User: What shape does this take?
Amino acid sequence: MPSWMTKKLFGRFYELDKTLGEHGRFEEKALRTPAGPEKYSKPSLLRLRLLNKTGLASFYWDMQLKQNGAYKKRFARPYDSKEAIKITVNDFSLKDIKAFLRKGSLRDR
Assistant: This one.
């Protein structure tokens, strides 16, 4: 994220660290500040839903994906269990798979 988007958050963390250094503990007020609201108000939720529907909420992230050539893969699920099974079956011999099913590991490989 650009520095102008994180400046306020990092400033809050700095204040939190400062109180810990000065007093040896976190102040309750300083702990609540970086976390932000636990629940959004109805107007805030309405704004967030509107931003999501128009695509503005994901604009920055999509831009980053496009710059790094990963936009087309944004819905990929490389750790999905079905994909993992395909990789396991293709990467190991039948002997390895039978050993795995018998022992539950491939340590002897």
